[in-house]
Amino acid sequence: MATVSGRWKPDACSVWTDRMGFDMEFVHKSVLLEESVQWVVTDPKGIYVDCTLGGAGHSHRITEMLEPEGMLIGIDQDEDAIAAATERLKEARCQVKIVHNNFRNLDQVLDQLGVPQVDGILFDLGVSSYQLDTPERGFSYMHDGPLDMRMDQEASLTAEQVVNRYKEDDLAGLIYKYGEERWAKRIAQFIVAARKEHPITTTGELVHIIKAAIPKGARQDGPHPAKRTFQAIRIEVNDELKILDAAMEAAVHHLKSGGRIGVITFHSLEDRIIKQAFKRLQRGCICPPELPVCVCGRKPELKKLKEFTPSEAELAENPRARSARLRGAVKI
To answer: What is the pLDDT at residue 4?
Structure first.
């Protein structure tokens, strides 16, 4: 039986109606599904945490592997995801607890549930297909919709505020840093010029401005010209990268000895953070190399670092998986 906390109402189902009257179902093709679940789940009677519940693709597969004594804890900040996952997992034979929260608060969530240690933890850091394909969520440069991009609909900061209120230098900096966009300064200049005429309120407007800012020759090859800028703004709105280091520390702290962690990433910035965090936790000591002896007292916490990428068959079925990477580790 699923236990739900948060603002979601238990009679909701997995289908919603958007502003134009079309049914929008929370559909998301889980990437590296078998690789991640088979890596994380080692005890059918254990306790497992899916820190990015989404539409419950990974969680559903985890519950299929657990016995009635086992437990799945699902965490997500997206209310639509909470509703969809609760519906999908209602027939699970194991214990299921679903929490509306951000995984940055993992310590608090597990403390409130009275679960100090778990057997495995999974993170899927990508944006869901539902979020990308629902125009009113404002994540996609392929659909016109309001400039939102909030994963947590209760959050105060939106993409519209970032685009219309940030100073030009700050805009250029975050587009360059989080989007790795070579035309960041020029894009910021064009955004500031456009918003002087009137506020930029839709994704379509922003895409048009970005295309105008990037020289035609630079738009001929590679990904969509707005991809990197949209990624950067989304990361800023949801504070995606700044929370990863602390989240990894908390997750590993709550793992039992022999417990496993798996993290699926979709771009180089977050993958680099996870890779470095795992190596630091594997090494233990974080003292400056010039010190002759360790003074921090930290001991190694992880071992057996593993890496997985999608198979050719998965890439053929789901092209969005092409940049995915799963990093796994075992708690000492």
So the answer is: 40
Q: Which among 251, 293, 267 has a CA at the least distance from the CA of 119? A: 251
Q: Please give the domain boundaries of the chain with CATH numbers for all domains.
A: 2-125+241-331 (3.40.50.150), 141-238 (1.10.150.170)
Bridge partner list, 99: 5, 75
Residue 95 CB partners (closer than 8 Å, separation 6+):
1, 68, 69, 70, 71, 72
**Which residue reads 């670092």 in tokens?**
305
Written as one letter, the residue type at 108 is Q
Report pLDDT for 217: 86
Amino acid at the residue 234: R
Q: How far apart are CA 78 and CA 99, in angstroms?
A: 10
In the chain, which stretches have pLDDT less than 70? 1-28
Please list the alpha-helical segments (H only) found in 12-141. 33-40, 57-65, 79-88, 106-113, 129-133
**Integer angstrom CA distances of residue 4 from 46, 73, 74, 260, 281:** 20, 10, 10, 25, 33
Query: Which pTM value belongs to this model?
Result: 0.88
